[in-house]
Amino acid sequence: MPSEAAKNRNIIFLVTVAALGYFVDIYDLVIFSIVRLQSFKDIGVKPENMRTDGEFVLNMQMGGLLLGGILWGIIGDKFGRIKVLFGSILLYSVANALNGFVQNVEMYGLVRFAAGIGLAGELGAGITLVS
Fold first, then answer.
1. What is the pLDDT of residues 100-115, one digit of tens each?
2. DSSP string spanning 81-131?
3. Alpha carbon distance 126, 4 (integer Å)
């Protein structure tokens, strides 16, 4: 049986990982809203399409958050919350790195969808583990 000190270290580790995950989640959502217009200009979106293309990409991310909340919950029930926590962090980290390589709005939407799936898993697993 683990000692009390080992349990406390595990709790501190989980709270730290979850807190960093929340920070990155919020940072991701905020930074996307800040760089959205410039990133659309960089991939050649015309000014008259900024709103509709922006809504498309944002809706893709929100759809990813919805789907990710369901999928990661099921995966967490079967394989454990720690694996979900780290798997989801890995997914949205890779998806966010891929943001730098998008060439069109459709690709941007798919990458934001994947990032949304990852963001949802971290939130659910982190809250459950910390509680």
1. 899 999 999 999 999 9
2. HHHHHHHHHHHHHHHHHHGGG--SHHHHHHHHHHHHHHHHHHHHHHHHHH-
3. 22
Instruction: State how far the Cα of 45 lies from the Cα of 59, in Å rounded to an integer.
Output: 17
In 72-96, which positions are buried (b, 16+ CB within 10 angstroms) versus exposed (e)?
bbebbeeeebeebbebbbebbeebb
Q: Is the pLDDT of residue 12 over 90?
A: no
Residue 65: how many other CB atoms lie within 10 Å? 20
Maximum alpha-carbon separation in the chain: 64
Out of 1.20.1250.20, 3.30.750.24, 1.10.1740.10, 1.10.150.120, which CATH number does the structure's domain 4-130 have? 1.20.1250.20
Torsion angle of the four alpha carbons 12, 14, 19, 21, in this order, in degrees rounded to the nearest 10: 150
Q: Name the pTM for this structure.
A: 0.85
